[in-house]
């Protein structure tokens, strides 16, 4: 015959109640002073028997609660010592939204500068606009060419060389670019060859205004940043039959041709305009021709 927990308690409770009641009487008789026992008489023994009997009646429940608490505490300690398995973490590549830098060593967006760019001087204005950034690299041969020009007996060449040296000096103070004059020339027979060699080595761009250097660099697979092309792209857009107001400055190459210029420097060739030199007048655009040197506009006098 099987006994459940509740049935077992029902059988044990009466026995424990009687036993603890008897123990209560014994404890009361032995621990209570005779004077107090004489005064209280049997009432004290009855109270002791009832109190200890109630304790015996509740003893199974107390032991059950204590046992459960002890088991729960032991289980908690065991659980803390067992490592908790964690789910495997997914490896997610980090995304970077910063501007990419060319992997060519210590130079960021290397731009190899040609002598023609420094002599022209407009690179300084372009840099101030923020369209050009990175490292401007100047080889010793370019600096030597500027020195040679600045010491020339020809006044025009001397002026060009000095302007190139002045532009080179002013670029050192530009915060949007970092100018570095290299200590050694790259390999090559001519200055153009050295510029192309350096551009290929650094995977950078050669900045020039020289038409021939532009073509040679393109053939050899070196990227070119031609300031002439940039300047021409930003010139005023003119359409045939449009009317312009210009001042005829000089004679043209053709018969009775006059030559004038737009504010951006675009040349305007005026048919039958030779007699109007020094005058401002309206002309009608006939055609626009794009050449390697820039844009040319052919026009006639407005009737």
TrEMBL record:
Q: Which residues form a coiled coil?
A: none
Top-level taxon of the source organism: Bacteria
Provide the protein name.
Answer: TRAM domain-containing protein
Please list every transmembrane segment annotated in the UniProt record, as residue ranges.
40-59
The alphabetical list of record keywords is: Membrane, Transmembrane, Transmembrane helix
Q: What is the lineage of its organism?
A: Bacteria, Candidatus Curtissiibacteriota
Which InterPro entries does this one have?
Nucleic_acid_metab_PIN/TRAM, PIN-like_dom_sf
